## 1
Amino acid sequence: MKKATKMLALILVFSLMLGGTALGAEQGVTDDTITVGSVGVTSGPAAFIGIPYYEGMEAYFKTLNAEGGVEGREVELIQRDDEFDPAQARDHVETLIYDDEVFAIVGQLGTPGVVSAAGLVEEAGIPSVYFGSGAAEMAELGDNFFPVQPNYVNEGKLKAQYAVDYFDADSIAVLYQNDEVGNDGITGIREGLEEMGREDLLSDDAAISYGLDRTDFTAQIQQVMVEDPDLLIIFGLAETASLIIRGVEDFGLDMPMLTTYSNADASFLDTIEPAETAPNIIENLHVMAWLEVDEEGMEPLEEAMAEYYPDSMINAYTMAGWVAAETFVAGVRATEGELNWDNYLETMDTLHFTEGMAPEISFEPGVREGVTHMSVLQVYEENGHFDFEQVTDFKEFGDF
Amino acid sequence: MARIIFIQNIIGGLETGSLYALAALGVVLIYRVSDVTNFAQGEMAMFSTFVTFTIWTYSRAAGLPYPYLIAFIGALIFSAIFGYSIERVFIRPTAESSLLGKMIVTFGLILIVNGSAAAIFGTDSYYMQRAIGGTMIIGNLVVRPHSFFVIFLALVIMAVLFYMIRNTMFGVAIRATAQDRETARLMGVNTTKVTAFTWIMATIMGAIAGLMIAPATNVSTGMMADVHLKSFIAAVLGGFTSFIGPVIGGLIIGIMDNLVGYYISTNWQTVIVYGILILILIFKPYGLFGSRPQKKV
């Protein structure tokens, strides 16, 4: 009996070990399909980001498949909704890797979820291409991570430089949300100012944090009023940033404002409803932007959306989803030999892709900074409608 | 300048605190009648707010006069029906189950109501106007008339509840039901009606709270999450067994939050405020205005 138990234990251990080594060899790839997975929010308050984002991604894959796929294989996307909950995100990523056995994670959306699942992805060694996140941590996670969006530290540095060179500011105040997004952002701003030798622009009192649970920003805006800066930087995502902008109007602060590229879309302005809540200050609002798209560059996306999502608007999130999909496929196209993790990772490690919607996506061994060139957009009003227009060239830190 | 900033933070705190108070009063009403803590109060308020928002949007699009007033009246009517339906379908059938069982039902309601709202109204976030728009400058103070309307509403609802419970026959019926449901029934009180009516009233209060909160959070399926949590804390701080307690508790939280944020630290704002509240509860375990619950025999 004891011998039988020992044998059973040994068999279990060996099967687990074999299972471990089997993971990833060529999973998710058949002769005619490549299955990829993604996790992001498509319900709840942040769904306005995830729904168009995944429409953009699906539109790309559907168009690709209709044209015969990539290297003869169609791409199938399994998308799971994490409701912007990091615990759910981690569980879904685990399911995608070990139960659905996808070939790659493509475009995981949302910083909290990405950070939460990062350890799993790193341990599995599965390719993870594009993150709907600007967490700087992505740059240091490992060789199987391929971030594309700018990270918030780099964005912060660039904001510091624009504050000096474009806004001509002698003092700035920063309202930043107290999480990875805001903390990375304020770190970047401070690093940027330090590298420019302009630490004097931002006093300690003018770096003001806020919790994500806030509905009242009186204390924070009062602090900004006392500082009376030349530029107010709002390093926060849409939900809180829109409330802050309304507060700025209420308190009559008339100064340029600059917020993150995550808010660089007209749908963000819709949540503010500027005509009613911020008519006097909305044209002071600027955002950073990382996608440089002319009419010709938009054509493939517009055609695909007209075909597959005719009732949906195209916005910055749709474009981001599209870029995630095309970055993944660019890697597949460039992969020589059998499509497996080793070959794909080796190819992505030196990918230099310029034919897509983003101006340039490139990786070097050990370098995972994402896009570093950004421009500034400003709100304008036309016939009662508000949108953004580009007011600077694309530049990276140190470029001015 | 220093005095202006201080008062400005107090005014901001009063507004936010009133929102917590409004949200908490419905929870306290149901608790006083049935000992049940309705954890779904926030989600029910959110659902009613979506209905109100929909009426408001259509009224505006149709060019009807006073769309906000139409939406407000629509909210009252809908929430009365909604509250009764919830009580009739989910609460009444569980009348004989344990308190824990009833509270688990309200947890289930959170998921049902939230999921239904997402399916019916979608998951986007929408702007909702204030009851009274604009701002006024008084001296150097920025004052939102909406803030005073919210404070006024919270005080009026509190006073009405207080009066009703103390001075009306229905209040006597509520108190009798709360004291001992069986004995109240034997004495001729229709406890089923009393419970249904309290759910209707609580849901109406939730709808009003949601409508007042919406300009500060936008209308979305997650709009009540943080407010609801803080309203519970306000109720616990003030005392779950009184109506004045949640109002005072809400105002204390709102004001302390702003003062700590401005004068001490925005980084540690939440930690310090709720740390102080826990300290208060150590010395006043039943809240500032609460009383030790009497054991029913």
Note: Chain A is about 45% helix and 20% strand.
## 2
Amino acid sequence: MPAPALNAALLSLTGALLLASLLIGPAGIAPGTALLALVQDQGATTLVMREIRLPRALLGVCVGASLGLGGAAMQGYLRNPLAEPGLLGVSSSAALGAVLAIQTGLAAAFAPALPLAALAGAALSGAAILLLAGPRGPSLTLILAGIAISALAGALTSLVLNLSPNPFAATEIVFWMLGSLADRSFSHLWLALPFMAAGALLLLRLGPALDALTLGEDAAATMGVRLLRLRLSVVAGVAAMVGAATAVAGTVGFVGLVVPHLLRPLVGARPSRLLPASALGGAAMVLAADVAVRLILPERDLKLGVLTALVGAPVFLHLIYATRRRLG
Amino acid sequence: MTARAARRIWAWLRASSAALALAAAPVAAAPERVVSMNLCTDQLALMLAAPGQLLSVSALSQDPRSSAMAEAARRLPANHGRAEEVFLMRPDLVLAGSYTTPATRSMLSRLGIRVETLPPAASLDEVRSNLRTVGRLLGREVEAEAMVAEFDADLAALAPAEGERPDAALYQAQGYASGPETLAGEILAAAGFDNAAAAAGVSGGAFLPLEVLVTLAPDLVVSGGRQPGASRAEEVLDHPALRALHRSEAPMGSDWVCGTPHVLAAVERLSGERRALAH
């Protein structure tokens, strides 16, 4: 499929889901009234549209784009379709950073400490994964390293939340494990957006280098790709995007796995084309999941990660089956 | 069966089983070594027990954020709801709540200790019945009757004059709203407010989406007090859409938690806010 056609299709899908996200909600506002209230002051309806639904929908776009792009970049660099921030423990380490910032009171004193701490957590685990997996990222090492890091970060997150004097904190382990966009406001969006934008700029520029890398490291080096710099850029970009997304929405798994997997055949397996397509596809997937949680159990705050895992885990199993020879 | 009917039947079953349990157990002599393991039975026992009769209360009742009688509770040693520590106090009566871990309660019963379980009060009327129940268990019926009479007189003195009843919503962490058929809902009604959540079909307690609350546009929003540390559950209370509504200055603090005469303090504060709203 030619690039402009694919991107236009993904963009219109995301647009349609964004509209659905704005129009669907427990308050049951008629679509016409809802859109009018968005542009014109209509009292309580405008408050619902501008302060509750709009930030939630926009945050869904940003979080999804971050996870999709982060997954595509990791897979491009490691040349392994199983690499994904959630599976490799990058997201859960980001969650640990965010939880530490919140529970130490750092985030209350200095708001940007929240995404910064999540970024630090994501960067540390991202660097650890790349070190452990080595340059080619063989599946077995990659997955084992991911399991170990996820388990450690998850356990430490639970520990920190259980130690908190706040009676609600321990119940939030579920949020940090599965993610949700419920009741997020513009303050969360403005907090995360700069980091996501910086990460996106960094990762989207890596397309040509990742294309060259598909020919092997030596070939890429002779084509002028500086491998160390590429590695640092991938870690920094993924950490910024996934860290910021996790800091405000919790850990939403499998988006970075499913979206690049579905889109790869459509872009001729070229990382440079997969990156922007995965960002759009990720946005669409998270928006769809967020609309679904509101339709299925509107008053229970069903977690996003439940739906993405229902779609993602079978894809993951299929990928393991397909690569089982390499797993040895 | 509607949720409301189910709740009625459940409340009736609870009440009648409590009555049966009490009728079956002959209260021969007043117990001399009483240990309470539940925040609400702690406070009822603190109010009613004879000097020296109550040995220990739960640690929770020593925390002023949840207990209206933290100071009095601190004069007694605390227990942490563990069967072992309670058993070692050699009590002849243990007061527990229906949310006290069943394993702990049955363990104490197996060890031969009399355990009495009180359901949490879901209405102002259950404040009266809880006072009487604990009074009977402690052999302090006269004191309990006097306290019920005082409660009734104070409540009558606080009754709002006829007139406009503004809408208020009880909205807590995680978007949990209390409807009219709860203790908090009855406190709100006694202070002269209509319950805004009732319009959204909430009768007991329910999670009410923020956008539904904003659409209801209540005249006043009463929220829970902030807990130490931080949680995402409480972040909804700082949401800009909620901040745009009129917020109560007094949080739902320790006076709201248990069905004791302390609820009157909450009624009084809230009545003051209603009068301020009218002006």
Note: Strands of chain B lie at 34-36, 54-58, 78-79, 93-97, 115-118, 167-172, 176-178, 194-195, 205-207, 220-222.
